[in-house]
Amino acid sequence: MLKVSSVVSFLEAKYPTKYSYDWDNCGLQLGTKDKPVSKVLLCLTLSSKVVEQAVALRVDLVLTHHPLFFKPLIQIDTAKYIGKNIEILLKNDIAVYSLHTNFDVNKDGVSDVLAEQYGFKDIRVLSPLSVALYKLIVYVPKDKLEEFRTSFLELDLGNIGNYSHCSFSAVGEGTFLPNDSASPFIGQAGVLEKVEEVRIETIVKEIDLDRVVSKMKSIHPYEEPAYDIILLKNTDKNIGLGRYVVLKDEKSVRDFLSPFDGKLFGNLDLDRRVKRVAFCGGSGKSLISKVASMDIDLFITGDIDYHSAVEAEELGLSVLDIGHFQGEMPAMHYLKNILIEKFSEVEFII
Fold this sequence. Notes:
single chain, Udp-n-acetylmuramoylalanyl-d-glutamate--2,6- Diaminopimelate Ligase, Chain: A, domain 1, six-stranded mixed sheet
């Protein structure tokens, strides 16, 4: 039978938790990944009403966007609603898993889905995460090239924009002299060897570097592979908070008021021409200054407070507050759909 671990592995492959923010708490909140699962409930926030529904539906797992625990607990008081919810979930053997900022920043995340709700496809990252990139260069014997490269490029590297498995190869001649303690794949101890080798180079993210180098060594035919690691000034612009689009044909601010109920802040001119539109599902008020600096005409987000509205007005930015719920809920429906496609034997409920 399918287990929670299978669902988690699928989600974390698509939305790696390594890109979640330091203050966040993504991952398993309650229960065990070894638990069998046949029914899953999805929600934004695990409120008392959701807990009641989870029990009534006899679900095995609740997938939330907002984590059950943001801060470490110092006590569990079952007379209070948080403690009571924990008690109910544990007694009914219901596991809880949360994907939060990793769902926000990765491709096909919250803001991508929100932008697509407005019919946009050519979507760009608004505020990219600072992800250091390295060039990894490794040398392999020519007759082992295809065997090595096939396994090497499956190590989640060589990702450039919408492309993966990117690499470059060049043929050259390598030399080495094995000492008496060596066990060379080619040649013999004490004899200088010349080998036709291929230089393979690709791009690796810093967070993946140690893992990739370790795996590379394990699949390399040589006892001591020769490789280089070079820090690049390139940055990964495909992961980050918020999204924006550049319209082929200008619209007016008024044209964006129909899909959701919302309130306009900042520049209130409904006939203002719109060429560049930014999106941030959930709360995007921290991005107002960034958005204005990019000559964005309209920012669609949620949780705009008094000070954020004043800032938007001073910067001449039109901000459409569609609400925290409306900005994030479409992504939960998207999540449900891809989970149904992957795990047809499991029932998924919003």
